[in-house]
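re: ur question from earlier - yeah i can do the single chain one, its not a big deal. heres the input i used so u can compare w yours
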Amino acid sequence: MRLARETKRGVVDQQVLLETRNQLKASTASRDAAKATILKARAELLSKKASLAKAKVDVDVARADLGVAQSEARRLEAWVGYLKLPAPFDGVIMARNANTGDFVLPTTGDPTADSRAPHLAPGAQAAPIYVVDRLDVVRVFVDVPESDADYVDEGSRASVLIRAYRDDEIKASVTRTSWGLNVTSRTLRAEIDLRNPDAAIRPGMYAYGKVVIERPGVRALPLEALVYSGDRTFCWMDENGRAMRTEIETGVSDGDWIEVTHRRRHDSWTQMDGSEKVIVGDLSVLTDGAPVRVAPATGKAKVASTPGEYDKEITSSEDDAAWDKLHVAPADGSDIGAAPGADQPAASRDGPRP
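and the output i got, formated as tokens:
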């Protein structure tokens, strides 16, 4: 505006005024063009950000599609895997309960199998398609009673008799135990693994398993010295020249001898100390309190005949530590039974000895 006034006054040339106005319009146009460029750049930035977000979404969608495709591939592989049934170990197929074209299910096997077929699934609803048995090792199960469970552990001596295989016992040892007892049967499960390299022992053969319980140094009596009444065990003892029926507690037995641990005396239990005089022979003629006398016998007495359980042999001598074979006779002089032979120990002056 000032330049226009100066032009009217003749100070500034008219041509200069026009040039100046043209420069202003050019500058204004340049400014507007720069603003438009900025707006365009901003629009392009927003567009590229949107494209980036879209690209990220596309990546996530592609990853999801990949996971779906991998899951589908695994599903198809699982279906294809049903075409083959790999065995978990080398062995022999003992049972086949399906044929080509049969319909089977993963959880129940072949539902059309005979209900009397072996190896039925739980509930007897169906049978497995195949049953494979391992033959290089045969496992024998022995259920040990609760009273003997504490004496059986891994490595305990054992033997197995399989009559269909051979008449001799197979020496073995306990491979493992369940450690805990079965709450129903009150037994300890012991397992014996037998090597079977020639596959001569076949699955399903009937076997007799025996676990040796070793209890050295225990006090024992011959089984014929015991009398049973219900679930209680008694023996006859010589107390001050009279026969007394005494209740006792017993332990392990080898079939001929049995461990004795405590006796009942005056309504209380006391430990057997070896000083007791136990009567053997014809016990049916005895009555509680009947007078008896001790008659000596000669020979030697064996405490037991099973190696590893009771293997100490006692011979008669003048030594008080030896187990002199004695038997008890009534006070009238007639013997209670015959005098025991060399392998039939009767009673001891020092009571039962280990």
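Residues 2-80 form one domain. not sure if urs matches, ping me
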